[in-house]
TrEMBL record:
It comes from Trichoderma guizhouense. Residues 640-770 form the DNA2/NAM7 helicase-like C-terminal domain. One of its GO terms (molecular function) is ATP binding. InterPro entries: Coronavir_polyprotein_1ab (IPR050534), DNA2/NAM7-like_C (IPR041679), P-loop_NTPase (IPR027417). It comes from the Eukaryota. Coiled coil: none annotated. This is DNA2/NAM7 helicase-like C-terminal domain-containing protein.
Amino acid sequence: MTQSQVQDFVWLHAAADEIYKIKLRASFVSTSGSPSSSIDDFYVLVQLKEFPSRYDAALRCLLNSDTLCLHIYDPAVRAPVDRERPAKWPARVVHGSTIMNALVHQGIADENAVFNSSDERHLILAVRRPKEIECRPNFNIMVVGDEGRKDYLVSFNFLADSKPCQRKVEAVLQFHPHANPTPRGQGGLQLFGARSTESPTSSNIKLKMRLHRDLLRGYGFFETLRENAKTQPPMQLAQGRSLPAVNLLPASQHIVDALMEDVLPRDRKRFCTYLSRAPLGFGLITGDPGFGKTTVLSVATLGMSIALGPIYACAATDVAADSFAEHLDRISEKFTSRLNEAKALGESPARRILIVRGYDIDDEVAAFHKLLENPRIGDKAAPPYNFALKPKWKLHLSLAFWLLVALRSPAVRPFHCDDPVGIQSLQSYLHNQSSLKRLRNVATGVIGYQEYKNGHTVDADRIRFMFRHILRCTNILCTNISLSCQTPYDRWKSLAKGIAVDEANNVGRPDLYSVWGNTLLPCLLCGDDKQLEPRVVSFGQKDEKGHSVNRLEDDGKLSALLFFKGNRWPVFRLRTQLRMATGLFGLCYEVAKDMPNFRYGPDCDISLDRHACGRELEAFLQKRFPELAPPLDGMLSEAFINCTRSKFYFSPVTGSGWNPAQSRRALHFVRDLVTQTKITPANVFIITPYEANVDFIEGERQKLYYSAISSMAPAATVDDFQGRQGNIIILVTAATETSETSEPGYISDIHYLCVMLSRHISGLVIFGDHSIPQACDISDIRKDVAETDKNPMKSMLSILMRKKRVATLPAA
């Protein structure tokens, strides 16, 4: 298992070192058409004609890492010192779809020239002049169009970080038979009970470590239990031979009943049974998209926090972690309200469970000061990191959020009487500290931020101290997995009494072990193994001799969820569709195959107000495309819009592509949809498999013609939309039948297709380009052909053709 991680990193790290030694010719383009002396942002066109093809695959993987620094050399400089000392500017990849508008606007090239250049070996980067002196911000740049324009030499410096690989390897090595126990389960002692007197090397800890190793090996527990039985008194012999079970629910039945209100009535009894007798305290929760997995996991996690103590909640990505934290907070609020409604007059009210969504601590401090300065900016207070990285910080439930709640700032929701005890104690502390009066005044708007800055201010260390106070009182901490091993969250993790992992289908086993430790903490995994798998950057890559660069790539692709399911561990499976309108899950169900039977829940009734936009969409489709068959009574259905003769532009350098015709057709459709119906732009979301296509769509949306949909959420890739939902999803596949043969990419991946076909609530419209049989042939398409077709995209199309839900647009 360690080798699957090491080989994945070493191949890329070695390639990055060799790529850095290669100097390539490049020219600079202004992003706005202004003279180079007055701007800081540039596009860089790097020629790859001389780039060795043996590094193509590695370069494609490295370009997705967001760690690129471009070293720029001026070949005209004669001084040896200056010639060898490059400018070091942060850079990020952009696509031909992005730079097209800049080139056309400046008259450097026309649109067709940009499209036709997609087949050439070149790379387009965006760079920004840095402020750090050591990066040479004053390096003279001359752009295309300047008098005396010239080419430069550049090299790619990928800042490969070995820490993630090291973390995963060390996580696996902690299960060596002679490894020390990880310090787990001693947490929240000042809030949740007396300190354990159990020695770290006690027989009970050793037994837990052996059982944990047995669990991960999947060979069974017989030998460990037999040896343990020998040490038991005669009266407890049978108990020593049985697998220990843990109750993950609170002892009080009325608390359990209040928790279970957020679970479907038909699932409550078996869910309580599953959690109350979890073997080894380990459980799996699974279900298909829209079945309420995160809700059920949140209920279980809240129960664990009450029964056991502080719980570390995590997910593979920041988007999934955000969603998990929001579910936990929302359910905690409703749960607390139910408890208080049932209390008699005069009884002490219940308090909400404190859920914190943790981010980088320096980002929290920077965002906090930004929100003091401008309380209305919300998530835009996120620090920009650098030019190459997108900010990941969100305001809701962050440490900055809770401190602002305690300060009664208008930047967040008002302080509530049911707020967690820890926040109420922090509020009292802030109120009683005279040295914090100016901080309280600027937070509440009594004084302006500039007046605050001109006087005594609270330094960053004091702010971090308050954040640590919040963490000490936190019941459930939610972060992405990598952040769980960084300060200050690694300390909190060592104090946790259990963990919960959402989207575990996207979590590799070493990642799980880095959170879990080796002392068999109670643990719940939740996910759907039909959706995205763990990422292995070297997957499918070959060396010059045709051998795989990672001989254990399949092992790296195996998720924690699928591994334990494959070992036949007891699984709690959800079988009711709760999100999508009736009829809208059928396509994903048929394409993915192997899914168990399901039923639609009460919220799927299309007559409900929550599906009003779906009914509007269907009426619009029927009017625009009369050839579409109406859905069955009481149902809604997906639609495929066939954009004939569209062209897919693919860059072999970046591994991304875009389709202008499909993207424009989709934008025209959305514009007409929101202007001719009651559907608002906020109800519509565009997703597409390729980053380049996202950039093209966002560039097109800047045009005046699309001003009606300017308030719509930005288009997103499938990866970025994983864990999110939208009322109406517009899926732009970008691919064509020809491109699928040469570059099958995401469309042929059943895991990606399942995500793409399951993000909607009330409507899904798919834009693509595929050959359609003549009308007389459609009746001959048999259901079994669609079910056995090896190409998921063709299978999807066959199903929609059988339903007569395909409309064809003439070539543009």
